[in-house]
Design brief:
single chain, alpha/beta, Conserved hypothetical protein from pyrococcus furiosus pfu- 392566-001, ParB domain, 5-stranded mixed β-sheet, two-stranded antiparallel ribbon, 7 strands, 49% helix, flat
Length: 287
């Protein structure tokens, strides 16, 4: 990957696209028929709060849209690059036209802008944010270190965020709904069985446990006689842990080394066809 300037999250979309021109605020604005505008199919944000949208719609009725949308023209229609929440609220307010700035960004730039706008506004729930990071890894070949530098987070934060996507889908739903926090989820991930993860999550929700209380509960469960009777897995050697970490950084995904008596194997995880293609390209380039 080409070297990019290291910029913090607060520096705007140029943190991800340093060579692109800044988005103009008050120039090039035009009124566009709202029915000719479509949502961004690759919008990272999946959930929109209906009550908050209703409040924004009422504000738009009184004051109009104060900040124009950023859109891209596609076959006579326009796709929202930034401002989908305003567009949705404008539809609720029954506006016929909305102010917008038309830009001819590439598909890669469009997705990056959509990602960074949501991250900057803190509009994403932890799972949506994790999916954003995964898209940067899978589609733009960013390493976790790259993402950490570009969005002003620590590498550990990015690692933990992406790790949430390894949890059972029911746990992820609890996180998206705000029933448990990522801290709870990291504690729950100590359990390998998805059914036990869900059961513990439900107990945490029902008892309204803090992350520390949840950790004590899970530790007590793991130390219970029924669990202790199960054969313990062989702890990985320190050298294998180091190599695993290096491979994770290299491939931008989870890597596990299984060391057997006569032979071993390396397990590389992927979460989509696109990510599998990305890994294949990495292997081809390494030849």
């Amino acid at each position: 990957m080409a070297t990019q300037k290291k910029m913090a999250l607060g520096r705007g979309i140029t943190a991800l696209i340093p060579d692109s021109e800044p988005v103009p605020i008050n120039t090039g604005i035009q009124m566009i028929d709202i029915n000719r505008i479509e949502p961004n199919k690759r919008q990272p944000r999946k959930k929109f709060d209906d009550e908050a949208l209703g409040e924004l719609a009422e504000s738009i009725k009184l004051f109009g849209i104060l900040q124009p949308l950023l859109v891209k023209e596609e076959d006579g229609f326009y796709s929202v690059i930034a401002g989908e929440r305003r567009w949705r609220a404008a539809r609720l307010a029954k506006l016929k036209e909305v102010p917008a700035i038309v830009k001819n960004y590439t598909d890669l730039e469009t997705l990056q802008i959509a990602l960074i706008e949501n991250i900057q506004r803190q509009d994403l729930n932890p799972i949506e944010e994790a999916e954003c990071f995964k898209k940067l890894i899978d589609e733009f070949f960013f390493s976790q270190e790259d993402i950490a530098q570009k969005v002003g987070r620590s590498r550990t934060y990015v690692t933990y965020a992406v790790g949430l996507l390894n949890l059972d889908s029911r746990i992820q739903e609890f996180i998206m709904d705000g029933k448990i926090t990522p801290s709870h989820a990291r504690v729950i991930s100590q359990l390998e069985d998805p059914e036990k993860q869900v059961s513990c999550a439900e107990s945490i929700i029902e008892k309204e446990l803090s992350a520390r209380e949840a950790e004590r509960m899970i530790l007590a469960y793991k130390n219970s006689p029924s669990e202790k009777e199960k054969p313990a897995k062989k702890a990985p050697e320190p050298d294998f842990l180091r190599i695993e970490e290096e491979l994770k950084n290299l491939f931008g995904t989870k890597v596990v080394i299984h060391d057997g008596r006569k032979k071993g194997k390396i397990e590389i995880e992927y979460y989509s066809k696109d990510e599998l293609d990305r890994l294949l390209l990495l292997f081809k380039n390494a030849r």
